[in-house]
Amino acid sequence: MRVLITGGSGFVGQRLCRRLKEAGHRLLVVSREPDRVRDRLPSGTDIRRSVLDFVDTPPDAIVNLAGESIAARRWSDDQKKRLIDSRVNITRDLVMLCEQLAATGGRAPAVMVSASAMGYYGDQGDREVTEETPPHDEFAYRLCKRWEDAAREAADFGTRVAILRIGLVLDAGGGSLQKMLPPFKLGLGGRFGDGTQFMPWVHREDLVRAILFLLDGEELEGPFNGSAPHPVTNAEFTRVLAKQLGRPAIFPVPAIVLETAFGEMSRLLLTGADMRPQRLLDAGFEFKFPTLEQALADILG
Fold this sequence. Notes:
Largest sheet: 7 strands, parallel
Helix content: 25-40%
Number of helices: 11
Low-confidence stretches: none
Structural class: alpha/beta
Strand order of the largest sheet: 3-2-1-4-5-7-11
Radius of gyration: 19 Å
Number of strands: 13
């Protein structure tokens, strides 16, 4: 089938495109700079600058991964707007594509798997969080809600919509580990604040497998937590990572230092949610790397 991917040249998108190509699917990727990203994608990928450029090549499925990094810079009012717009605007374009395809007598894509994030839940303390847990109202939640609400509009045109609330993505060569590894390898790592905040995480391979699972699951719609079934606290993450590297982790970063350096964005580091992938598990999805020890052994070993 033809699969349209936004964010296809990113850390998750590249692995997803490779898996889709291996399975025999045709890739349609949106990028504002086709020539710059072409080498990152499988040969034969159809790369165009706009979602609506694919009206003449109707996709059978959509995976929506686009969005500016939420931790790229401090959350000024302008940056908050950029974070929202980078997610909501392209998602609205995808919905518009579904609408145009349906209106011209064709068929809207059968399914859209649209990314969201663990930030949907906001700060949840130490309570166990499933897809049914009410969110805590803060910026990360409001961003994710607008993103998800925009994606759900595709259902009006007959498209099945699955929302994947993604945790910290772990793998070599990018993602959350890229910035963590240098200080930990030097023995300068440590917990953030008191370390009791939860860090939902997922191996990149399992995340890609979950996306493919949702694409194929004809009755799977609504929100799904995209994280491993065994989340850990920041202190536990620090301990396991340091042990895997054979280094000490004795340099905690006080909360006040993070708050001073990053302002409101420090909440990404100092708060979290004990997020569980209940709906994926109930649907029969099996994680290849269910524990942090297994994931880091695969990535770093």
